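From the shared-data thread, chain only:
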Amino acid sequence: MEEIKAVADSALFTTNNLWMMLSAALVFIMHLGFATLESGLTRSKNTVNVLYKNTLTPMIGLLTYAVCGFNLMYPGVAGGVFAFAGPWIATDEAGVTSAYNPGYTYWTDFLFQAMFAATCATIVSGAVAERIKLNVYVIFSILFVGICYPAIGYWKWGNGWLNTMEVPFYDFAGSTLVHSVGGWGALAGVILLGPRIGKYVDGKVNAIPGHSLTSAVIGTFLLWLGWFGFNGGSVLSADPGLVSLVLVTTSLAAAAGGLAAALTISLVTKKHDLSMVLNGILAGLVAITAGADQMSPAEATIIGAIGGVVVVFSVFMFDKLKLDDPVGALSVHLVCGIWGTLAVGIFGAKAGMPQLVSQIIGVGAYAAAAFGFAFIVFLILKVTIGIRVSAEEETEGLDAYEHGMNAYEI
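Structure, as tokens:
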């Protein structure tokens, strides 16, 4: 009997580990989604620059997470505000996990979490596109993904103070911990950079269309595909019932978000705006991420649909505030990340005022920490080396000045 149990346990461990490795691969492919989406929604003269940043980001994320990020986020200290288990990742020769995640190997745990870290930095890339200096983006990404993201991620996922409150803050897969944290970082950059030349003139908002909606559509569907690993892997096992529920709620929210955005923008502008539909899909995905494991299919549809409506008016709001975001990252990741996190207190398994208050506390804490850290870093860089390219470089395009090459030769 014990031998049969040992075989069954081994098979379960292998299955869990395989699913988590597959999920890590799905999250990794999201970087290609971000690259094609962001490059498609920006101008052709900046394509190489956007692709270059999105190529560097997963490298930065992996290395910084190995050097210090993983042990900042999972230091093994309960209830704290800051802790650090030491530099570099290491375990026994077998790579077996600690008690924190006993269902799969330590190495798989690191790889899955590192993919999340890199995703957080990528959110900033799109919002500051077409006018930020490349070296500034690299420096900021190293600091933001290497220190800020894991240090405050510990508050919830590493069993820090937000997870040990009387009513714990809840964020299943990162509506706040990944998406709005990235969004707060992006907001700081957008404020200090200022808008692109020609975006806001004489009180008018001038559209600066991207050069390839084909790339944008490909990027959106790659992101939707990757979200199966992003949310499905966050179950932290191959539990058949819960994983399948999460994939259903994730897909329904995405579909509802896209359709709600399509209807909203057509009613407001009398035009069928494809880019807004794409952002609606992503809005639904971001919104469901905080509670994908707690929602019924109907609740997931409602959450996604509200996200799709919110993202449309959020884009208009940021334009009114003259905060120039070329790809809508602030609306998708920041605003809808907040909405999805609050939705846990409205629709989730422990819905009610106590849970909603905990969600508000979590949103506020991450807002203050992520925005404050990013603003200080960008401000220091602005007053020292400068964060924005010259007007001449911006007008001619970053590809020529920063890279000496073009994405297209026609």
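The chain is about 70% helix and 0% strand.
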